[in-house]
Amino acid sequence: MLPSDIVTGITSALEDLDVDPAKIADVVTVLRTNSDSIGDSAFMTRMHIATAAFGGSEQGAQLGYHHQKAQLVIEDTLRGVMDDLTRFARAASKAVTMVADADTSSAADLRVKQEAVDLLVGSTRYFESDRANHESRNQHLAGGDR
């Protein structure tokens, strides 16, 4: 489940930055609708299937082994998504603070606003979930055999 403080932080920051309320509502809907798929959801806690559940044959053992590796990749990727959302919420909050502190009448203050926007844009250029997925795939699926 996605911690409510992440959703609240993102919502508050977007409102403070005067983002279109309809777009904010869309973001909140997506976050809340998908929050059960992230973090400590059933997938991460109760949906593990024992390797032995695929049977005692060689093919069953292979399937169980590869299923376990795929499960680890998905878990690591979902943790990366959580890290991405947390980082975006922090960046949005910091951007709000920077904008609130800026005096819109001067060029120097407009540069601060641009830095705030650049901070938000920069927080979306690198995705922890991509890194976590690639690392986990390399760690758990390397070689593709047993």
How is this structure best summarized?
The protein has 146 residues and is mostly helical. 73% of the residues lie in helices and 0% in strands.
Report the radius of gyration as a whole number of Å: 21 Å
Structural shape: elongated
Helix and strand element order = HHHHHH
**Main structural class:** mainly alpha
* Overall pLDDT metric: 78
Number of strands: 0
Question: What's the number of domains?
Answer: 1
The end-to-end span amounts to: 33 Å
Number of helices: 6
Proportion of residues in β-strands? under 5%
Low-confidence stretches: none
Into which percent range does the helicity of residues fall? over 70%
Q: How is the main sheet built? A: none
Provide the fold topology.
Blueprint: H1 4-16, H2 21-34, H3 42-45, H4 58-101, H5 107-123, H6 128-141
Helix pairs in contact: 1-2, 1-4, 4-5, 4-6
Overall description:
The chain is mostly helical and 146 residues long. The protein has one domain. The protein is 73% helix and 0% strand.
List keywords for this structure.
0% strand, 73% helix, 146 residues, 6 helices
